[in-house]
Design goal:
mainly alpha; Serine Threonine Protein Phosphatase 5, Tetratricopeptide repeat; 20 helices; about 0% strand; elongated; disordered C terminus
């Protein structure tokens, strides 16, 4: 019995000793692991919360972040730009990228260079007498610089030479608004007022123009035109003769004299004045048009057609000239030429409408004849059908 009791105690002591040994080994293992992690600087984020295991994620931090925020990494903080300068640096970077990629609008220097290029093209075209190209180039220049006085002046002159008087008047009016003290605008502005029939406005403008420029014959010529437009022919003749006293070698004065004489019914005297003017300036479309009108009044339609043809060459945009040319073509029984001129004037001539109507009637008649012939042939080939038709009748 004592032996059994002794054995039981011995076994119990052995079990207890073994348990103590296992516990001591586990404590040493944990301590060694912690020591290694501290030495290497690597720490498992999950160890901050001993109750959690598994992968570390940003969502875990946001859900369980009840402690104070962790300060930024010193290395990161030293390499990142300060927040207050960040927007400025981004803006500079965008501007640099945009500049390199040519995404921004052209610079002021680029715009000025392009404007100068178009303006020079316009001046060269104007000097060469190519008024259409000059007008287009001036318009392009003005899209780049809308307030350029020299471009506006050139554009107005080109439009005037093309017979686009209402547009020229708008340009000169705009120019005067930009520079109300610029007296050089007065004469061309008065000329365009005359051209559109505003003779009273032209008279007021040109009286001031002749005071500012008493030696400029164009001002006196246009003043005479304003008086003539108001049917004040004696004043008009006095003014135009004064212009010719300043210079007899000027196309404008002779042309204006011809216009006044023509309006007074002195047609042959007017023709002589117009021809003198055209000898000095053969490219003046207005004078050719006035000569055409005078020849028409004299019943010289062939001569009128030649004058209007020359006028349309200088003023191809003037639809009124094309219509006058078409009318004299019709007088000369030049039907085809008349139709073409009417078309350029924006209308269909009466003779052209008659020709079209006759052609349509001719076509309809031919179609009706063909149908009749076909029906008769079919009836002749079908006796039974003829009998049926007779029965029905």
């Amino acid at each position: 019995m004592d032996i059994i009791k002794t054995l039981s105690i011995s076994i119990l002591l052995l079990v207890l000793a073994f348990s103590f040994q296992v516990s001591a080994d586990e404590n040493v293992s944990v301590t060694d692991t912690e020591l290694q992690e501290n030495l290497s600087g690597d720490q498992d984020p999950a160890m901050d919360n001993p109750t959690e295991t598994g992968d570390y994620s940003e969502q875990d931090v946001s859900e369980n972040n009840t402690s104070e925020p962790v300060p930024p990494d010193p290395v990161e903080a030293s390499t990142s730009p300060p927040q207050e300068n960040l927007t400025e640096e981004i803006s500079e970077s965008e501007n640099k990228t945009t500049s390199e990629g040519n995404q921004t609008g052209p610079s002021a220097a680029d715009i000025q260079k392009a404007f100068t290029g178009w303006y020079d093209k316009a001046e060269n075209a104007s000097a060469a007498g190519n008024n259409k190209a000059a007008a287009d180039a001036y318009a392009a220049a003005l899209r780049l610089d809308k307030v350029s006085e020299k471009a506006l002046a050139g554009y107005g002159a080109a439009l005037s030479k093309l017979g686009r008087d209402s547009e020229a008047l708008e340009v000169y009016t705009r120019l005067l608004n930009l520079s109300p003290n610029n007296t050089t605008i007065l004469i061309p502005l008065g000329r365009e007022q005359n051209a559109v029939g505003n003779h009273e406005e032209a008279l007021t403008i040109l009286l001031n123009a002749t005071k500012a420029y008493p030696d400029d014959t164009e001002g006196w010529n246009q003043l005479a035109a304003a008086y003539a437009g108001l049917s004040q022919y004696e004043e008009a003749l006095t003014i135009v003769r004064k212009s010719l006293q300043i210079s007899t070698d000027q196309a404008g004065g002779w042309g204006q004299l011809g216009t006044i004489l023509s309006e007074q019914g002195r047609f042959y005297e007017a023709v002589a004045a117009f021809e003198k003017s055209l000898t000095l300036n053969p490219d003046n479309g207005r004078t050719w048009a006035d000569l055409g009108s005078t020849w028409t009044s004299l019943g010289r339609y062939r001569d009128a057609a030649l004058a209007y043809e020359a006028a349309t060459e200088s003023r191809p945009s003037d639809t009124d000239l094309w219509l006058k040319l078409a009318a004299v073509y019709e007088k000369e029984h030049m039907t085809k030429e008349a139709a073409q001129a009417y078309q350029k004037g924006g209308v269909i001539s009466s003779s052209d409408e008659i020709d079209q109507s006759q052609e349509q009637n001719k076509t309809v008649t031919m179609q009706e004849t063909e149908i009749t012939n076909t029906t008769e042939e079919s009836a002749a080939d079908s006796p039974a059908q003829n009998e049926t038709s007779q029965t029905q009748e």
